[in-house]
Amino acid sequence: MAAFAELPLPPALHQALQLLGYSRMLPVQARALPSILAGRDVLVQAPTGSGKTVAFGLGMLAQLEPRGDVQALTLCPTRELAEQVSVELRRLASRTPNVKVLSLCGGVPFAPQRASLKQGAHVIVGTPGRVEEHARKGSLRLERLKVLVLDEADRMLDMGFEPQIALVAQRAPRERQTLLFSATYPETISALSRHYQRDAERIDVASSAAELARASSGAAGQVVQQFYRVSDARRIPELARWLALERPGAALIFCNTRSECSELAEQLRASGWVAASIHGELAQRERQHVMRLFANGSCSLLVATDVAARGWDIPDLPLVVNLGLSPDPTVHLHRVGRTGRLGRAGLAVSFVSEQDVHAHAGLERAQARAIELQPMPAGAPTLPPPQPQRVTLILSAGKDKKLRPGDILGSLTAEGGIPGEDVGLIQIDESSAYVAVAAGSAERALSRLQTAGVKGRSVRARIAGMELRAP
């Protein structure tokens, strides 16, 4: 079964799939959805970016009843992933009337979430700690839950969320359907499945590091990997030279340490790149701010520690770069998995020095083949770095002002005369909004928002920079 049209889904979900342009199923969807729709528990091992959100999203939405209580819950390891899952579920539910998808994550005030729960919700997506807190305090009731999804379960266990998962599961009916998704399959995942699932069907979709590393033809959905030999002293200069030669439009660059992350980002900015860095010591709002600029196409290069290796989806990311290898082959898998998502082709380039010798050997063992280290290409850059094609505008109004993406789009296009294709991703938070605009229309869009506002209301607007000044 390869076509969504063949699935026994409600008409509203088929309509949403058509509007989204989803016609053919990806492997994880084709293999998991028949069992999910039949009501079975499934344990799915699949790489990040394989399309699993659509698989469990259609499965849970197909079971919703008109009643207004919580019927489906998805637990995610990070706020970033939870937000992405929420967006995708709302897209899938766009043609189904009166379905409310609510995100419950830490790092934001508790009271507004409690108020939203009082108004009712059908689907909850959240992080284990915040979901457990709402359940413990009585603001979230799960006694009529039909579907529980554990997304990126291996990562949740790595982050120590097993006690919160257990407490949440205890408040849900025993006769629920439990769907477990994991990129890797350590024994802890097997134990988790035995504890929370009933006769789960295991589905394995090209999930090993070896399978991912062997992909080398550049066909759709495959990741081409290249490994370059560099000296310890020349790691950063050689990587910077390679970027200047190749001039990628966008790249996510991983470093093993925070100091390397900051040093590389500073050198890239000095060379003319629009670059930013994120790491674990940044506040949640700062990380989210920078990642949105990168996702919007306003930042060309994002340099990150492994805080960004999981739970973050940029569907069109063409390039991942590793400044050195991770000591853990599984982490390398997740880094590489940021590109080549949802059936697209991707490139992963690693710069390997003498200090990576043990990581190199470990990766060879994990993928059961030798890794050839190529010499660095010769040549000197002749052109300046490419500049981002989009600029991000930040508005001082959001959900608190009942702002919707369509309101902003209408203000800029129907009223402001800006071409619709010049307006990109629009993301709305509780009290702010991010709007991606083509660079050539940025000043005009900013002027329009500052003078005419949105929905007849004045708003403050500014062009976002790389200075981590989140709203």
Q: Could you explain the architecture of this structure?
A:
A seven-stranded parallel beta sheet has the order 3-4-2-5-6-1-7, sandwiched between helices. The chain has helices at 11-20, 27-37, 52-61, 79-92, 110-118, 128-137, 153-158, 162-170, 187-196, 209-214, 235-246, 258-270, 284-295, 329-336, 357-367, 405-412, 442-452, and strands at 42-45, 72-75, 101-104, 123-126, 147-150, 177-182, 201-204, 223-229, 251-255, 275-278, 301-304, 319-323, 346-352, 390-395, 423-428, 433-438, 461-463. 36% of the residues lie in helices and 18% in strands. The radius of gyration is 23 Å and the shape is globular. A hairpin with a 4-residue loop joins strand 15 (423-428) and strand 16 (433-438). Helix 2 (27-37) runs parallel beside helix 3 (52-61), helix 3 (52-61) packs across helix 4 and helix 6 runs parallel beside helix 8 (162-170). It is of the alpha/beta class. The longest helix has 14 residues, at 79-92. The chain contains 17 helices and 17 strands.
Question: How would you briefly describe this protein structure?
Answer:
The protein is an alpha/beta fold and 471 residues long. It contains 17 helices and 17 strands. It has a seven-stranded parallel sheet, sandwiched between helices.
Please bin the fraction of helical residues.
Answer: 25-40%
Give the distance, in angstroms, between the N- and C-terminal Cα atoms.
46 Å
Overall number of strands: 17
Structural class: alpha/beta
**Annotation field: number of helices:** 17
Low-confidence stretches: 207-221
The radius of gyration over CA amounts to 23 Å
Q: Please state how the strands of the largest beta sheet are arranged side by side.
A: 3-4-2-5-6-1-7
Share of β-strand residues: 15-25%
Main beta sheet: 7 strands, parallel
Give the overall shape: globular
Give the mean pLDDT. 89
